[in-house]
Design brief:
The complex is a heterodimer. In chain A, the strands form four sheets. In chain A, strands 6-7-8-3-9-10 form a six-stranded mixed sheet, sandwiched between helices. By secondary structure, chain A is α+β, with helices and mostly antiparallel strands. Helix content of chain A is 23%, strand content 36%. Chain A has helices spanning 47-55, 97-107, 112-125, 141-153, 171-188, 199-205, 223-228, 233-238; strands spanning 8-18, 21-32, 36-40, 62-67, 70-71, 83-85, 160-163, 192-196, 208-213, 216-221, 243-253, 256-262, 265-271, 279-284, 289-292, 306-317, 320-326, 332-337, 346-351, 357-360. The longest helix of chain B is centred in the first third of the chain and has 32 residues, at 66-97. In chain B, helix 2 (25-46) packs across helix 13 and helix 10 (197-225) runs antiparallel to helix 13. Classes of the chains: A alpha+beta, B mainly alpha. Chains A and B meet through helix 2 and helix 4 of A and helix 9 and helix 10 of B.
Chain lengths: 363, 296
């Protein structure tokens, strides 16, 4: 395994404002050499701004970025020696694949013979041997993406920046290239900052996740940590907690809390709110709701934490079905089940109190 | 029978021949009436010289006379520098204006204004502004940069200036329109790959601007080659700016020798065709595809 080329990338209190609009607010992050960090969030959360600040393509309003104690935030992009993969690949359309990959080496005045061998090796690493003489317009989206990767890794940069590199591909290619990216990272050990709005991409690729919203990070942690222990309702929603429901706190003791989701619908859950406010938000994954046998009728937080509902929508998805069920007071709940249910069928669903997370209400 | 007719129509439609083609009719008719017919008529006329001379007599006469033949060089001496200067000035301006620039609309409007004024107005203005007692010379003399007024009108310089003022907006618009389509991420990508600004322009932006530049150069040349009003008004139409269109005008309307005028027009066309053809041959060797790095 090659040595990572940097020891520590430090982003300290970076702010980027466009007039009154603050795209990035007091953002700090430490990245260790060889690490794969994903910046995850919806569009407009500041993740791409952060990446462009790192690349030197947009200037900071304040804050500092340094690599191994060398401050780099005032350097122009061409002096930073990072590799960047753009969302639209940004391949030079008037150059062959080989010339595209050689571009950075030529800019750095690498000897001709070495360029040829390094280009060949980079194309081999992204599995595009023999494509040197093709032009970008003759390639499929997935192949263009690989060329963009090769163009970045051929420089053996101390940091690779990727801006939603898979978002223009269809679902199957996306999964395939995701595996490729992970393989490349394992082979080359290049320190990588990866921007995405796709949680499954972030979870499967990154060593560490940074979930962002409105220019600040809400949670930083390993994929497993963020997935199982989301810091707040927003992160939970991003991590697949499709049921995010405003509720009222009825009683709490010892980290256990009873919440009322709607008139006549109360459930027991885990308190993650760090407040005693009455207004809270409840988060449950669709797969954590289970159907209970139809004979059993004890509902409520004190019995087995179940609710009686009526099935409204059933989406067949192969192994499982995604079901939308209506609880009393018009409350809509999403669940997944392997059992067969029909529209308008009355069902009872329960949730393990440990899987019902109660967060502080937003703002 | 009816079925046979329908299947014929369908087979034609498969080859792209259907009623939609009629939409081309007005344009084709116009082209035929306004371009092809006069061209062929003029060609025929040019080959019917007066006074029973041989068929190519007019052409022989033109090339035998230094006075007439030199109009080709005089016109090229104006049209080629004018096209080169217009395109040369447009490239950096278009490069700067191609992205989102503040007041872009205002700047382009101001730059394009001269094209809307018309050659005659520009020539009138030039005569006064660049004339011996015009502002330009007054300022130069007041500053002590020159002792006597510079001769800037009624000669080659005046015509060239007029061609630049009226031709530059057209070149700029064409090149800017093309350059605006260049994906800005390409230059950013080049920067992250270590290319300095100069290298980014030379290796990425300029090659992608070339198709727009060649089109602009060709049109600027063609427009300048048929220069007439400014050659008369701010030039020296009896001497150094007796361009080929003046030769044709004099043949037609001073000597009433229409066949000779037609022959001169044909020679004009041939010279333009040769230069334009030459430019397109060079262009054929350059990249002509998309200007974005994404999948098309």
């Amino acid at each position: 395994m090659p040595q990572p080329q940097l020891e520590r990338l430090a982003i300290e209190n970076v702010t980027k404002a466009y007039g009154d609009h603050v795209a990035l607010r007091d953002f700090s992050l430490d990245v260790a050499g060889g690490e794969f960090v994903a910046l995850l969030g919806p569009s407009g959360c500041g993740k791409s701004t952060m990446l462009n600040c790192l690349a030197g393509l947009i200037p900071l309003t304040s804050g500092r970025i340094s690599i191994d104690e060398d401050r780099i935030d005032a350097l122009p992009p061409e002096r930073r020696h990072f590799g960047m993969v753009f969302q639209n690949y940004a391949l030079f359309p008037h150059m062959s694949v080989g010339r595209n990959v050689a571009f950075g080496l030529e800019s750095r005045r690498v000897p001709r013979g070495e360029i040829a061998s390094r280009v060949a090796r980079a194309l081999r690493q992204v599995r595009l041997e023999g494509f040197e003489d093709r032009y970008p317009a003759q390639l499929s989206g997935g192949q263009q993406q690989r060329v963009a990767m090769a163009r970045a890794i051929v420089l053996e940069p101390r940091l690779i920046l990727m801006d939603e590199p898979l978002s223009n591909l269809d679902a199957q290619l996306r999964t395939e290239l995701r595996t490729e990216l992970r393989r490349l990272h394992q082979e080359l050990g290049l320190t990588t900052i990866y921007v995405t709005h796709d949680q499954s991409e972030a979870l499967s690729l990154a060593d560490r996740l940074v979930v962002m919203r409105n220019g600040v990070h809400l949670q930083i942690g390993t994929p497993a940590m963020v997935y199982t222990e989301p810091a707040d309702a927003f992160v939970a929603a991003f991590m697949g907690y499709r049921n995010v429901i405003p509720a009222r706190r009825r009683s709490s003791s010892d980290g256990e809390v009873i919440v009322e989701l709607a008139d006549g619908v109360s459930l027991r859950g885990v308190d993650r709110s760090a407040t005693t406010d009455e207004r809270v938000v409840v988060a449950v994954r669709p797969s954590d709701f289970t159907l209970v046998s139809k004979g059993d009728t004890a509902d409520g937080p004190t019995a087995d934490n179940a609710i009686g509902c009526t099935v409204r929508v059933v989406e067949y998805q192969g192994e499982e079905s995604a079901v939308e069920a209506e609880a009393p007071d018009g409350l809509r709940l999403h669940l997944r089940t392997r059992e067969h249910v029909a529209v308008d069928e009355p069902v009872r669903i329960r949730v393990d109190p440990a899987r019902l997370l109660v967060f502080a209400a937003d703002g | 029978m009816a079925e046979h007719a329908r299947s014929l129509r369908e087979r034609l439609a498969d080859r792209g021949i259907d009623r939609v083609l009629w939409l081309l009719f007005p344009a084709a008719a116009l082209l035929g009436l306004l371009f092809v017919y006069p061209f062929v008529y003029g060609l025929g006329l040019s080959l019917q010289p007066n006074e029973g001379a041989p068929v190519i007599g007019n052409y022989v006469r033109f090339f035998a006379s230094d006075f007439e033949r030199s109009t080709i060089w005089k016109t090229l001496a104006l049209a080629i520098p004018a096209a080169a200067i217009n395109v040369g000035l447009s490239i950096p301006v278009a490069y700067k204006l191609r992205g989102p620039v503040r007041f872009k609309r205002l700047i382009t409007t101001l730059l394009v204004m001269p094209a809307t004024l018309g050659t005659v107005l520009v020539a009138e203005g030039l005569i006064r502004y660049f004339g011996p007692i015009g502002w330009f010379n007054q300022v130069l003399m007041t500053l002590g940069l020159v002792d006597a007024p510079l001769r800037l009108t009624h000669n080659y310089v005046g015509v060239l200036a007029s061609l630049i003022i009226t031709g530059f907006p057209l070149s700029l618009l064409l090149i800017l329109g093309h350059a605006s389509g260049i994906d800005p991420d390409l230059e950013r990508a080049a920067a992250t790959l270590g290319a300095e600004p100069r290298e980014r322009f030379r290796r990425v932006v300029l090659p992608l601007m070339m198709p727009g530049i060649t089109i602009a150069a060709v049109l600027a040349f063609v427009a300048a080659f048929s220069v007439f009003p400014s050659a008369v008004m701010v030039g020296n139409p009896a001497g150094e700016t007796r361009v080929i269109s003046i030769a044709a005008y004099q043949a037609a309307f001073e000597r009433f020798d229409y066949p000779m005028a037609s022959a001169i027009a044909m020679i004009m066309a041939a010279v333009q065709f040769a230069i334009v053809g030459f430019v397109f041959v060079i262009r054929g060797r350059l990249y002509r595809g998309t200007t974005s790095g994404a999948k098309g």
